[in-house]
From TrEMBL:
PANTHER family: MUCIN-5AC-RELATED, PERIOSTIN-RELATED
SMART domains membership: FAS1
Keyword Transcription on entry: no
Residue ranges of the TM segments: none
Keywords assigned: Signal
InterPro entries: Adhesion/Biosynth-related (IPR050904), FAS1_dom_sf (IPR036378), FAS1_domain (IPR000782)
Domain FAS1: 19-150, 316-465
Keyword field contains Signal: yes
Pfam families in the cross-refs: Fasciclin
Taxonomic superkingdom: Eukaryota
Protein name (database record): Fasciclin-1-like
Region forming the signal peptide: 1-18
Length: 495
């Protein structure tokens, strides 16, 4: 055994005499000229080549041409590992780069391809082996060529975790997203440890700018766990085609899977009992393949929640879940969110909501002779704060029968309901099997009474409580300062 080891060293030494050193090798390879230039300009990298055992993952010039990130002086150091690893030895889950604060390089070797993070190793140009000295004191160095530039994290603590990225995304200059809303829900559900764990996981973080408040309010512990694929580090290119990865957010009844598509992920819920798909949706990836100490992060456009699991508990759900899961109430949801009145629902154990459906708001717009998107204009939203507050009675549970009984007991006089800064004066009656609200000069049909909830009740109505004077002097055009809000409303209506 000792004789064989000595023979291997002798062979390496004899071969090394015929090879140039690593710097000369890189200088000779024209397709690696940009990486070579970065390496010789970095004093630490250049000096390390003269005496250390190393593995270098060198991106091609084409890889740099396609690179959209920022080239910093220390970027080259993320491509250098302080140990020699030939192709036969690239089986570890990760390798630590030479610069301590950088996250690991994650290795995926499926037998056919080897990926370093999201970069594919080019076999024909790789596995160049050399020693720093032609004697027993020489150090082995290995050169592999890859087809993408490896991107580390900049300007943050040593080896950041997914939790660091969630809390302080501003330190990642190339990721222009924040996650304050999702972070708040993580804290509320005491799930911080899931993003700090040292296990190698794949994490999905929804960006703030695309999350509506009503969507955010539905995020619970199950939903948070659906954003984690445990014990697998999956970069987009190394993801298996047509393969579904099971998320952490699975329970006894269902399991959720994630499949990587072209620039998207598809989240699917499957029944354990029937093995049938119960729900599915596709979400865009905004920023992919962000390496961290405990895995990889992908930024997605919206939360990966599939909320039908909650709907199986019908009818015992909070007001907000009922309100947000009814596809006919999108405009009211939008107005509650934009006026922030929806936040009041968290502060009361009982409430009664009178909610106009989308058709009711569309009729309001038609009567004005304008498009329904006008309801997203700043002028209307300012008035909507008063209008929408008029539709919520806090601290009171008014079932339909109770409203009818109070009206009868008052001998058909108006029921006075406290709706905050003002009072709602209504009479409620059942006529020919239908229920109606008499409010001022308006007769409003209750389309769906007694939508029972754990903290109150919802009545869906066919017209909002709005006075004619509140609709006077609204702009009749569509100025650019609220086109964005109008587009959001239209998207909600199309869900």
């Amino acid at each position: 055994m000792l004789v064989q080891s000595l023979l291997n060293v002798i062979i390496l030494i004899s071969c090394a005499k015929a090879w140039p050193n690593m710097i000369q090798k890189l200088a000779f390879e024209k397709d690696l000229s940009q990486f070579y230039s970065m390496l010789v300009d970095n004093r630490y990298a250049k000096s390390s080549l003269s005496y250390r055992e190393l593995t270098i993952f060198a991106p091609t010039n084409k890889a740099f041409k396609n690179f959209n990130g920022t080239i910093t002086p220390n970027l080259v150091l993320y491509h250098v590992v302080p140990m020699a690893r030939t192709l036969e030895n690239l089986h570890e889950a990760s390798l630590d780069p030479i610069l301590e604060e950088h996250p690991p390089l994650w290795i995926n070797n499926d037998g056919k391809n080897i990926f370093i993070n999201n970069a594919r190793l080019l076999f024909n140009a790789s596995n160049f082996i050399i020693r720093t000295r032609a004697d027993l004191y020489g150090k082995t160095q290995v050169l592999h060529v890859i087809d993408e530039v490896l991107t580390p994290m900049n300007g943050i603590a040593v080896k950041p975790t997914a939790y660091d990225f969630l809390v302080q995304p501003r330190f990642w200059q190339f990721v222009p997203h924040t996650f304050g809303g999702f972070y708040k829900k993580v804290v509320q559900n005491r799930a911080q440890h899931l993003f700090k764990s040292d296990f190698g996981n794949t994490f999905f973080l929804p960006a703030d700018q695309f999350i509506f408040q009503n969507t955010l309010s539905r995020i619970d512990r199950d939903t948070i766990e659906t954003h984690i694929i445990p014990k697998k580090i999956i970069f987009t290119r190394s993801a298996k085609d047509e393969f579904s990865y099971t998320t952490k957010g699975s329970d006894k009844e269902f399991y959720d899977t994630i499949e990587f598509l072209d620039g998207h992920v598809r989240i699917t819920r499957v029944s354990r009992k029937t093995h049938q798909i119960t729900n599915s949706k596709t979400v865009q990836i905004l920023a992919a393949n962000i390496p961290v100490r405990n895995g990889v992060v992908h930024v997605v456009k919206e939360p990966l929640g599939l909320y039908d699991r909650r709907l199986t508990k019908f009818p015992y759900l909070p007001l907000m879940y009922k309100l947000q899961n009814d596809p006919t109430l999108n405009i009211s949801n939008f107005l509650f969110e934009k006026t922030k009145i929806i936040d009041l629902l968290d502060d009361y154990s009982n409430a009664t909501l009178f909610i106009p459906n989308d058709h009711a708001w569309t009729m309001v717009a038609e009567n004005l002779g304008v498009n329904v998107t006008l309801l997203s204009s700043p002028v209307f939203l300012d008035r909507a704060k008063i209008i929408m507050r008029r539709h919520i009675a806090m601290g009171e549970y008014f079932s339909l029968q109770r409203l009818v009984d109070i009206t009868n007991n008052l001998r058909n006089r108006e029921v006075i309901i406290d709706v905050g800064v003002t009072k709602l004066l209504i009479k409620v009656a059942k006529i020919d099997g239908n229920a109606y609200i008499f409010w001022g000069k308006s007769i409003i049909k209750i389309l769906r009474p007694d939508y029972e909830c754990t903290n109150g009740v919802i009545h869906i109505i066919d017209s909002p409580f709005v006075f004619e004077e509140e609709l006077i002097d609204l702009p009749l055009d569509t100025p650019t300062n609220y086109l964005k809000g109008a587009w959001k409303m239209l998207k909600l209506m199309l869900i």
